[in-house]
Write the structure tokens for this entry.
Amino acid sequence: MKRSDLAGLTLFAEVVARGGFRGAAKAIGISPSAVSHGIDSLEKRLGVRLLNRTTRSIAPTEAGLKLLARLGPALNDIDAALAGLAESGGEPAGVLRLTAAQSVTQFLLIPHLGQFKERYPDVIVDLHIDDSLTDIVARNFDAGIRLGESLEQDMIAVRIGGDLRGIIVAAPDYLASAGVPRRPEDLQRHNCIGLRFPGGNIYRWELEKDGNVVEVSVRGSLVLNDSGLTVEAARAGIGLAYAFEDRVRKDLAAGSLVCVLDEWCPSYPGFFLYYPRQRHMRPALRAFIDFIRRINPER
């Protein structure tokens, strides 16, 4: 590889990470046409197409994916080296790129990022919200935050909060009209609000009691791809919704939502921050891990 290719390779990784030319251009501070020209030049020099382009989307080709798998760790090492220079004064600094699910962002991160900024003013948190599983190495993230059951392999995982509990809720008016389910099989007779994952599958409600595990393929008149909106729909009396207990605690206290099948809804390990195994951790990432664990201790 020629050293002149490094800028193009960095540009390619940024396009994939940002989901297109415009996002990469905004992040880097150049025009989208300059990004497009840079990618074209790189592909010509390498003699292989790295991106499939349509009028609506841009995605890496098979060759591009293979390149990203090798390129990600190398760019992370370069970023870490440059960050080390910025942080040589002792205080964490630079851009900290994180990917997290919407739920953890809303309830575990956003309420506290102001405090983090006050403590570490030289750290810029670049937070990418994505409910799908993300290859943090290929997309050049410092770390990701997901539920423990969905962590990537070969990662170092740090628990950053207590147990979670998913519960089934509905508005009192809906239950007065449709009745209260007493057993998991009763859910088949109810209007259940579905949650569609980014991959296309609809979440199967996971229930457990006395070691008996049941997964229910729920059915109903409404399917959404946003967990927050499923709660809103339940509040509106449309049907039953499956939600994190912490998300609906105020509704339960106010009586606008009621929990059903409570004994079938146990707790389980919550969110973990995970990052690639590497010899050196950036001070900014270490500072973030220590901060988020301190304000969200395991319960």
User: Anything to note?
Assistant: The chain is about 40% helix and 20% strand. The mean pLDDT is 85. Residues 149 and 269 are 8 Å apart (CA to CA). The radius of gyration is 22 Å.
